[in-house]
Specification:
Helix content is 33%, strand content 16%. The chain is an alpha+beta fold and 312 residues long.
Length: 312
Amino acid sequence: MPSILSDKRFHDEEAAYAWVEARVWPEGPICPHCGGMERISKMGGKSTRIGVYKCYQCRKPFTVKVGTVFEASHVPMRFWLQAMYLMISSKKGVSSNQLHRTLGVTLKTAWFMSHRIREAMKIVGIEPLGGTDKIVEADETYFGDRDIVVTRTKRGKSGHSSKRSIVALVERGGGSSRLFHVERADRETINKIIAENVASDSHLHTDESRLYADLPVHIGEHHTVYHSGEEYVRYEGDRTIHSNTVENVFSVFKRGMKGIYQHCAEKHLHRYLAEFDFRYNNRVAIGVNDEARADRVVKGIVGKRLTYKISH
C-alpha cells in the first residue's frame, strides 16, 4: 500500500490546485467577485500563474484562493495541503515549530498557516446536540493562566479565578463535541450555552457541581454523578450515568496543549478549541478517516478570512 504522502497533490502545484478546486467548486469554477459560473475560462500562457481563471461577466481574474483562508498567501498550495494533512492526522496537533522544520518555511509563516487552518476547522451553522432519548454530557475545566493573574494559592500558583475557563458539551454514542472558552464559568453562562446548544428533550449528565443546579429548565432529564464521593459511574435502571466521555475530550485537549503546543495566548484559545473539536467530530470511530477529514477541512476554507493583523 503506497504512502498517502506520495500523492501527487503534495508535490505538484497544478495537482494541488486541481484537488482543492474539485472540492471547493464541485460543479465548476464560480467567480468570487460576481458569483457567475457561465462565462469563465482558465487562463494559459507561460507568464500566467497556476490556477488562474477569468470571468468574462465581470472581467476579473481569480483563483480558488480568493474568498478563502488562503487569500493573499504566497505559500505554494502543495505546502498548504501538506500542513493541513499533518494537522488533521495528528490526534494532539502539530506545533508551528514542527511545521517550520518539516515544510521549510519560516516560523512566522508556519504559525500563521496553522491559525488559518484552524479557522477553516471552525463549525458554522450548527444544530443542537442530543434529542429524544439521547445523552449529552457537560463539564467545565480550567486550563492555563489568564493574561493577568489576580489570585494565587499559598504555593504561589494561580487561583481558580485567574485560570482560563472552558465549558464542554459532548453527545454520547458517536455524537459531536463543542468546546467554549468563556470569560467566567458561572451558572448564568453555562445555562445560556446549554439552552442554545442542547435539544430540550435530551438527557444531560454532569458531575455534582452547583453550576448545573437549575438546568432542568432547559433539558428533559438531568442526572449527576458525585465525583467528590469517588462515584464516577452509576447504573440507574437501563441507563449508565457518567461524564467520562467529556472527561476524555478534556484529556486529549490538555495533553495536546501541554505536550505539543506548550503555550497559547488567551486571545487564540478559541481557535485551538476549534481544532480539537474538528478532529473529535471527524474521528475514525465514526467512520471518518484521514482522507475524508482532509476533504472536510478544505471545504471549510470558503468564506473565512484571517489576516495576520487580526490573528496577531
